[in-house]
Amino acid sequence: MAPWCYCFLCLLIRNLSGTPSNSSGESRNPWGPAPVAPGEVVETAGGVCKFSGQRLSWWQAQESCEQQFGHLALQPPDGVLASRLRDLVWVGQREVPLRRPPQRRARTTAMLVFGEKTADRAARLRSPLPELAALTACAHVQWDCASPDPAALFSVAAPALPNALQLRAFAEPGGVVRAALVVRGHHAPFLAAFRADGRWHHVCATWEQRGGRWALFSDGRRRAGARGLGAGHPVPSGSILVLGQDQDSLGGGFSARDAFSGNLTDFHLWARALSPAQLHQAQACAPPPEGLLFRWDPGALDIAPSLLPMVWVRLLCPVPSEECPTWNPAPRSEGSELCLEPQLFLCCYRTETYHRLQDAQSWPGQDVISRVNALANDIVLLPDPLSEDHGTLSPAEASSFLGLLEHVLAMEMAPLGPAALLAVVRFLKRVVALGAGDPELLLTGPWEQLSQRVVSVASLVLEEQVADAWLSIREVVGGPMTLVASVQRLAPLLSTTMTSEQPRMRIQHRHAGLEVRSLRLREASTRGCFFTMPGGRPEGPGHIHIPAGEARRLLGKGLSGVTAIHSWFTSRVFQHTLEGLDLQPQAPASSEEANRVQRFLSTQVGSAIISSEVWDVTGEVSIAVTFHLQHQAQTFRHKLVEPVCAFWNYSISPYTGGAWATTGCSVAALYPDSTACFCNHSTSFAVLLQIYEVQRGPEEESLLRTLSFVGCGVSFCALTTTFLLFVAAGIPKSERTTVHKNLTFSLACAEGFLMTSEWAKANEVACVAVTVAMHFLFLAAFSWMLVEGLLLWRKVVAVSMHPGPGMRLYHATGWGVPVGIVAVTLAMLPRDYVAPGHCWLNVHTYAIWAFVGPVLFVLTANTCILARVVMVTVSSTRRRARMLNPQPCLQEQIWTQIWATVKPVLVLLPVLGLTWLVGILVHLSPAWAYAAVGLNSIQMKRRRLREVKATQLEAQGEGTPRAVVPGPDLALEPQEGVPLLTLPHSIARR
C-alpha cells in the first residue's frame, strides 16, 4: 500500500474518533485502561479498595463502608486505580469530627411571642412591598399545638386585594401541623408540613406568577407543591406584610379567630423563588442575598405593644455548607465538596483484613446464620461480610429480626463462632444507622423496643465464652469496642421516645446497659449529675459524675437543657480481647516504686467500660466528667500494678477501630480496689492496669551483684582446691569419692562460666556458647546430687551389701542425661533458647523448663530421701541411747531426739543440693537475698577449712577420712525479668 494510503487512513480514524490529540478527552480513548466497574475490587499500594458504584453523601458513604468493615479511602488513589477512575470520589478522614452527620450551629436572635389568640398581636413591615412576580418567605416557627383552629402565619394585602397572599396552618392534636398557601383568594389544600411537637421548625413557602407554581418546605425538605395557584397575576405593588394575623383590610381588620399562636423568628422575604439548595442555606442561617427584600430585623417592624418586650432565643441552624474532602481524577487533584452532595466512593481495606473477610464464609458458626435466616424467612445475617445489604430495612422489621436473633443466641448452647459473631456485629451496625438515613424515621419508629433488643443482643455476644471468637475477628472489627459505639448510637433514637412525663429511659441486660436522661442544667448547677451503674453508688465506685461547674458553664452558653447519655459494659471479654494493646507506660506513682521497676510488661483492662456523652439539639457537647470504677478481680503475684485512667480514641487507629489514650485524663484518687478519675472530655472510659515487673532498686542490685560475684569467686576457689585435694592427696578410690569428684568438678566449671557470662553477652556467639555450657554443667551438678541421694539411700536406708548399679550407670546419669536435655532443647527451640540481653535461658519460653523441670525433680527426690534418712537416724539414735542409759531423764531424751534430727539435716542438706531451696525465697524480700548470700558464704568458708583438715588427716593416717565438699555461694543475675535468685551450692558429706 502506498504511503499516502497510510496517511489517509490515520486521518480518517482521527476524524471518526472526534477527539483531537491535544484535547482533555484523550484519557478516555478506547485504548486506555477500562473504567473501574461497580463492585470491582482493585489492589493498591496501601491495600485493597472496592468501588461501590453508588452515589451517597459523605456520611452515608462512610456508614456504608463501616458496615462492610472497611473505611473510605484515607488518601488519594494511586497507580492503576487512579487511571481507571472517571468521576469525583470521596476521601475519608482519620479524625472523628467529620465522621458524624451534619451538626447545627446556634445564634441568638429576638423572637415574637404570640401567646393566646387575640386581635391585637401583630407585627407589620413599615415599608410597602414592590410588585412581586415571584416570592419566597421563610421563618423559624414554634407552633402552639394546643390551638387547633387555622391561623395565619403571615399575610400580604394589597390596596384592592386583602387576600393577596398568606400562609395558613393548623395543628392536629398529637399529629402534624397542616399548612396551605392562599394566593389572590385561591386556597391550596392543607397538607402535612411538620410534626406538632412544640419544637422549632424552619418553614418556607415559594410562589411564582408563571404557571402559578408553589411549594411548601419544612426543615429543608419539600412537603407539598403544585401548579395553577394565582397564575398570571403578580402580587400588586404597595402591599403590606403582617406577621401573625390575617388582613381583612390593608394593614388591619385583624381577628382573634385567625390569629397565630406560638413563637416566630428569623423571618425572611425574597422577590424570587429559591431553589432547594438555596433554601438549605436559608435554613442554615445563611440567607442568599440575591433578591432579598427583608432580612429579619425587628427594628424594621411596627410591633404591637402586647408583643413587647421581645424575647431572645438561641436559634439552631444546620450546617449543610460543611465540606468534605474529595479527589478528582481528571486533574488528579484533591478538593472538597458539600458533604450532603451525593458522590462516588471507594471502600478500602488492609490486604490481610480483606483476605480474612473473604475467608469468613469458611469460618465456624455458619449454622447460627442459617438458623436465624430460616426463622426470619429473610436474609438477616449475611454469610459474606463483603456483600452489600439486600433492600431496605424498616425499624419495625429491624425490631422483629432482633427479637429472633435474641431468641436464637439465648438458646444457643455452644459458644458463638467467629462467622456468626461477625454477621451479628454487622447487623447491629445496620440497625443503629437507621435514624441517620431518614430523619422522618425518628418520628415513627418503635425505638424503645428496638433499643432494648439491641442491648440484649449486645450483651449476649459479650458472654465470656465468646472471647475466643472476638479474638478471631479483632483485626477485622476492632474488638468489642465496636459494640460500645453501636450502643451509644442508639441514644438519638431512644431520646425521641422521651417526654416531659418520662424524662429518663434506662435499658440493661446482664453485661450491657444504656441510660438516656433529659438533664435540666439549672437543677444540675448546684450538685451536678450522678449516673450509677448497677451495684454502684454516688459516694463510692460504680458511678460517673457531671460536675456542677460544667452545668453552670453550659448555662452560660445559653443552654437550658441537654440530653445525657451513659452506657456501661461489665463483660470480661474486654479484658481478654483488649489485653496488651499499645499504651505508653505511665510513671509509677511514687519515686520509691519508680526506682524498683525493672520493666513494663503489659496493659490490661481493669474495670468496667463506662461511656458518657452530652448532647444538645445542635449535636454533641464536650464536658469534663469524673468517674469512679471498681477494679475487677485479677491476680498479679509479685507485680507492681499501676492504675491508669484512659479513654477509647476511635481516631487513633481507624484500621483497627481505635486505641486507648490518656490525654486529658488523670487519676483523682487511688483506693485499694478502685480508682477515681477525672477527664476533661466525654467519651468511653475505663481504668487500665499497667503491669510492671518489680525488682530491687539500683543500689540493692549493685550490692547483691557484688556479693554474688565475690561469693561465686571464693566458692570457685574452694571447689578448685577441693578437687585438687581429691586428686593429689591419694585418697582411696570408692563410689563415694568418685561421686564427690564429679560433683565438685561440674560445679566448679559451672561457676567459672557464670563469672564470665556478664562479659560474654556483648558477643552473640559467645553468649550462646556460655549459656549452653552453664545449662549443661548445672544440670550435670544436679544429676550428681541425685546420684549422691541414690547412693545415700543404698548405704543408709536399704543397707544392701550387694554391689550397686556400678559407676557406668552413675556416669550415664550424671553426664549423659544433661547432654540429652541440652541437645533436645537446642533442637526444639533454636531461636528462643537464649534470653535477650542475658547469657541464660529465655524465661519467657519453654526453654527455662529444660532447667527448672530437672531441678524440681532432683530436689523432690532428694527431699524424700532426706526424710527417710532422718527417720532411720532418729530410730537408730533412740536404740543406742537406751542401750547406754536404760532410764534416761525426759530432758535428755528430748535433747537426744532433737540432735538426732538436726544433725543429719545440717550435714545432708548441702550434699543433696537442698540448700538451693533458699533461692526460691529471695524474690519475696531483699532480706532473704542478703541472708542467703551471707549465710552460705560463711558456711562455705567453714566447710572449706574442714575439707582441708580432713584431707591432711587422711594423708597422715591420723584418723578416719571425712571428705567434705564445699560448694559455692552462687547468686544468679536476674534473667529477663526473673527475680534475683541466690542459689547456695555448699555440699557436705560426712
TrEMBL record:
It is found in: Membrane. It is a multi-pass membrane protein. Residues 108-317 form the Pentraxin (PTX) domain. One of its GO terms (biological process) is adenylate cyclase-activating G protein-coupled receptor signaling pathway. One of its GO terms (molecular function) is G protein-coupled receptor activity. Keywords: Disulfide bond, Membrane, Signal, Transmembrane, Transmembrane helix. GO terms for cellular component: plasma membrane. Residues 520-695 form the GAIN-B domain. The keyword Signal applies. InterPro entries: ConA-like_dom_sf, GAIN_B, GAIN_dom_sf, GPCR_2-like_7TM, GPCR_2_secretin-like, GPS, PTX_dom. Residues 704-939 form the G-protein coupled receptors family 2 profile domain. It comes from the Eukaryota. The chain crosses the membrane at residues 707-731, 772-793, 809-828, 848-874, 920-938. PANTHER family: ADHESION G-PROTEIN COUPLED RECEPTOR, ADHESION G-PROTEIN COUPLED RECEPTOR D2. Belongs to the G-protein coupled receptor 2 family. Adhesion G-protein coupled receptor (ADGR) subfamily. This is Adhesion G protein-coupled receptor D2. The gene is ADGRD2.
